[in-house]
Each structure stands twice: as C-alpha cells, then as structure tokens.
Amino acid sequence: MKWRRFFSINWLLVYAVAYMIFLYAPVILLPLFAFNDGTIIAFPLSGYTTKWFVSLWETEALHGAVSNSLLVAVTTALISTSLGACAARAAARYRFPGKQAIVGFIMLPLVLPEIIVAVALLIMLVQLGLPLSLWTVVAGHVLICTPFSIAILSSAFAGLDQSLEEASFDLGETRWGTFSRVTLPLVLPGVISSLLICFTISLDEFIIAFFLTGTDVTLPVYIWSQLRFPTKLPSVMALGTILLALSVLLLVAAEWFRRRAAARQGQEISTPGGLV
Amino acid sequence: MTDQKQSAPRPIIELNAIRKKFGSFEALKGITATINEGEFFSLLGPSGCGKTTLLRIIAGFEDVSGGTILIGGKNMDGIAANQRPTNMVFQSYAIFPHLSVADNVGYGLKKRLPKAALKAEVDKALAMVDLAGYGSRAAHELSGGQRQRVALARALIMRPKVVLLDEPLSALDKKLREQMQHELRALQQSLGITFILVTHDQEEALIMSDRIAVMFEGQIAQLATPEELYRRPVTERVASFIGVMNFLDAKLINEISSGLELDIAALGHVVLPNSARPEGLDAAGIRRVGIRPEMLTVLFDADEGNGNVLEAQVTGTSYYGDMTYYGVLLPGQSEPVTISMRNTAGRSIAKPGSTVRVGWGADSVVLFR
After folding, report:
1. pTM, entire model
2. pLDDT at residue A206 greater than cutoff 80
3. Fewer Cβ atoms within 10 Å of its own Cβ: the N or the C terminal residue of chain B?
4. Are residues B171 and B319 in the same domain?
C-alpha cells in the first residue's frame, strides 16, 4: 500500500506544478519581453533595456487613455461600492419578500458572458439615442463591479452585530452619528477592499469598454489598437508589466484590508467571503 | 417634602395597555403595569413570552401597536431611543470592538463634555463597576464578566432614570452569574436607580427583584413581590414556573366563617383559613390545590407529626448534598409528589420502596381554580 500512497502524492504535486505553469507562464513572459532589447517577441532574448518603458512615456495617445481609464475606474469604484454597501446592508439587516430573487438578479452579471452584457447594453443605448462616451463605459462597469462589491461588503455587514448600532443610538447618538462613529469604522476596511477590487476590475476590463466607448478610449482598448503594429508590441509588453504590477499590488492591499475588517470584528481570519 | 415618614412609591414608568403586533403575531396583548422609582423590577417568563419585546419598547427600539408609555410622567410616543432617559445593557453587551474600554464607557458623553471632565466621569464609572485602571484595555482583551461591567458602566455614566437589562447574566458561568446577581443588586440599591431586568431564570428574578412581572404569551400573569409570587401564585402555570409545586385535585365542601372546607385528594377533609384564599377567587371554582416540596415533611421515627400525617411510599430519591429530594406516592395517587428535606446532621435518607410518614400543614396549601 505504501508505494501507492507515495505515487498518488507525487502525481498530485506534478499536476499542481503543471497547473501553476499553465496559469502563470504566459504572465511571466510579459515582464520578460518588456525588458528585452529586440522588436521581435521570440527567444532567445537579445539583451536588457528599459527603452520600451521610455517610449511609453513619450506616447501622447497613451497618456489620454491612461487618464480616461483612471477616470472610469475611480468613478466606477465609487458608484459600485456605494450601491454595494446599500445592497449588502439591506441583505444583512432586513427581511423582505423576494429578497433572495433580488440579490440573485444583482449577482447575475458575475456569471453572464461579458460580451452578451456589452452587446445588450450597446443595443439599449443606441435605442435610447444616448451618445457613447466614457460615461456609458462607467455604466457598464458599474453593472459588472457591483456584484463583487456586494460579495465583499456582505461579509463585512453580516459580521456587524446589530445591537452595536442600537447601543450607540441608545447612548444618545443620532442615526448619522451612529453611522460615522460605529458602523463606518467597523466596515471601513471592507469598503476600502471593495473600492480597490472595483478599481482593478474596471481598469483592465476590455469588452464592455470596447463596445461602449466613443472617441475616448480606455487603456485596454488602446492596447488592443496597438497590437496591429508589430513594432509597438514590446511597448505593449512594458505597459502590460506595469498594469500587472499595479493589479497585484491593489489585490494584495484589498485582501489585507478585508482581513483587517474581519479581525476588527473578532472573526476568524480564514472566514470565507474574500476573493483572494 | 421634609417629613421622615416612608414616602409612597412614586411611579417612574407607567405602561398602559401596551400592544405589539409583528404581522399577524400578537407579541404583547395589553400590558398594564407601573414601575416605581428606585425599584428593581424583573420581567420573567419563558422565551417567546414578549418580555424582551416589552423591554425594547420601553427603550424605544420598537414602536407600539397600541397603548401608551409614560417615563417620569412624560408620554414617550414619538420619542426615539436616543432621546429617552433610559439606557440598556444588551444581552451580547454590544461593546464597541474598535474602541478602548474608556472610549466605550465615555461614548455617550464624548460630545457633551470637555476632555478632562469626560475622563473624570469615565474613571468614576469604571470604579463603580470595579474596573478602575482598565480604561486603556482593548475591548477584546476583556473576559465575559468584565464586558458585562463595561456595558453597565457605559449605561450608568449617562445617569439614566431607568437602566434596562436584557438577560445580562445569561452568558456567564454559574459561579460568576451568582456573584454578579448580588453585585448588580447591591449597586442598584446604592445608586437608587430603577433597574428593569429581563430574565427567563426564575431563581435570578427571585434573588434580585423588588417586584416581578411573570409573563406568558404576551400577558402579565402575575405582578408581585418575590415572596408573594412564591407563596401565593395565582395560577398553576405561575406556580410551576416559579420553583416546584405539587398539585392535587380538590373540591369545595362548604364555605364557613373561619375558612373553606375542602376535600383534597390524598389529604382528605381539610379546613383552610381565609388567609389562604387569594383575592377574587370564587370558592366554588376551586379545582386544584398546590403544596411546595419544602412544605411537606418526611417524618422519621424521632419526629413528631403535629396533626396532619399520611402514610406514603418513597418512589425515588435525588441527593443534592445539602438537600435530598424525595419522590413520594401519596395514598390513592398515580403521580408521586416531590418533597425536599434538608440533610441535617444525623438524619438518614429513606430508601426507595420504603414506607414513610409524611407531614403537612394546612397553612401551606395554595388554592387554584
């Protein structure tokens, strides 16, 4: 029996390693070629350079795309988190008819194919006669980010003992004072975590932005347009590297805040509900 | 008001026909009661009887569906919890987890007092609950008993007219609970503030309260002092909720000037003094009587039975150290009654199956309809 167990453990390890390589090898190629001194994306590597990063700095169109994306991502994060906070608090605190169905509908964009959402939104906007702009992109992004926000904030609000708010009110504090002195401090880490996640999702979302944007393009749409020019490919790799680093940083920060929220409320750190 | 005579109790809370509906469920069916200044008042009942709902209505967390509440003579209709002269100690204590002990205790006064005055008040409140020097501790560093004290200090610092306590001791272990019962009672007496306690623990209510309202299904079944409640329960349900009660069937034979002549199962023909008769009880309606376990005595050879003695069979014993509880089958009965006996020095314990003599006194019989 011993050899069998030995082998089964080994195979599991092989599988896990293969899985990780499959997942992350392409991602590692990104920084690899971003620092490669050669226009052609192929091995062997020809030398170390930072000129692709420098060329990014000198591209005017890129700067426009970055500021567009930041505007969209920040707006989306703020709106989604506000909506998510309201929904999460209602779901945690109140019982009302059709609650399951309503929450289910709000969470649906999580599993809907994005292309379907994008096409449907485009058709609707055209029917309504609304011009495509960065604001239509924000609307689309809010739709797909709100479920993530609710998922994060639900655990923050569910862990909040209702009698804490009642105690504050009982001690003479107003409803607003209770929110700012008790509720907000206790769910704040969750709110920050939600803002960061929504920001990240919006920042690198492509399909909806591609369909719904007008003349102002977001960063992913700009990158896609650059792929047509083979000479620009290394610059795109450099840009991708920056975005990758930024995303990882934001996600780590978001998870750190979520765990802090759980710890503040005295929960187990390993409670499910986090995305990372 | 300089006279030295004991002043008549002054009402602090007047509940008048309070009703509460949750959808089609009627949680409170017309509660009328007066709670006096400086009184330790308990709402006692099984879970779901509406006692917590009533407390939350007094606090202002729930609206009433009907009736009025006066606190200090003022109608509380439309006055929210943060404007009422009441403060609550929650069952979960509701200690703010992100604040220190001092910030928790000073929470309600923080905006009203300058820093130095606030600190003085907080220190005073912490000393009152034996937590002097704990101000800088974090909430999660406290034990259950300490959290309970912080919750109490946080309520007392507001100088409320009434302190509301929602099962405050139920999360503590037995030893600590008994200690806190006496401490809470002593603190309430020294402060002279009205306390309203919600509890399902009848022993706790008896130990701590000046008066107790026993509630079943949204109604007050009896409102009385602990002694009155134990000695003269008005219904069989109250009687069996407060301690243990043995019930026997009974029938009125005759109403005479000195009392009531009854035929009681197993006890036979008995004349009860008028004092045993609760107010408003129609003698013709008497169907059952009750006797507390300690009012029955297992007589050993040495004991003299003074008058009322029965032959009975022991069906079982439970040894509690200081007490022994006997199950005893009285003649002609199918269910054994419970008798409790102190285990005094030299007293033996009757064996199950043995026949003993049981003594009882007519003045210990409680009448029910």
Report:
1. 0.79
2. yes
3. N
4. no
